[in-house]
Amino acid sequence: MSKIELSPGARRDLRARAHSLHPVVAIAGNGLAASVVAELERSLQAHELIKVRVQGAERAQREALLAELCDTLEAAPVQHIGNILVVWRPRKEEAPKPKPAPTPQNPATAKSAGAFAAAARRAAHAQAAAGKKPEEKRKHWFKGAAPASGAKRPRGNR
């Protein structure tokens, strides 16, 4: 049947994991068309454990479809209940993509324009804050500060 054989304990664990899953692929009258096989391949690579809904087939046809599906995808059958097939296959290792060689940058333009502007804003704020008197800074930060002139604070909403 398939190349992967599962122990009863592993099959039981996979059935428990598959309980809350929804079918990701539906197989209808055309059977295992190339597009369906490609979608099953992508789903198995992404999730490892998937449910497949089979429409318009008798029990014997579904059993044959499950066997063909597992042979084609090199997967293991986990469960077959009604129109739902559960299939498992461990993820295939993908070849690592080669990283492009880093391009050398001119040290003068290594920073982005946004980083340069942010540094200039920080410097301007620091310079402006250094020129203000402490009372003026306090007055702007919270309402409860006493006025610098010594006048009385307003009370209430009058």
Summarize the structure.
The protein is α+β, with helices and mostly antiparallel strands and 158 residues long. It has 2 domains: 8-88, YhbY-like (Translation Initiation Factor IF3), CATH 3.30.110; 111-141. The chain has helices at 8-18, 34-47, 59-73, 113-131, 134-141; strands spanning 23-27, 49-54, 76-81, 84-88.
Q: Under the CATH scheme, which class of the largest domain?
A: Alpha Beta
Shape type: elongated
Low-confidence stretches are none
Helix content: 40-55%
- The string of secondary-structure elements, in order, is HEHEHEEHH
Strand-residue fraction?
5-15%
User: Into how many domains do the coordinates divide?
Assistant: 2
Q: Going across the major beta sheet, what is the strand order?
A: 1-2-4-3
Number of strands: 4
Number of helical regions: 5
Q: Structural class, please?
A: alpha+beta
Q: Can you tell me the CATH superfamily of the largest domain? A: YhbY-like
Largest sheet: 4 strands, mixed
The third-level CATH topology of the largest domain is Translation Initiation Factor IF3
CATH architecture identity of the largest domain: 2-Layer Sandwich
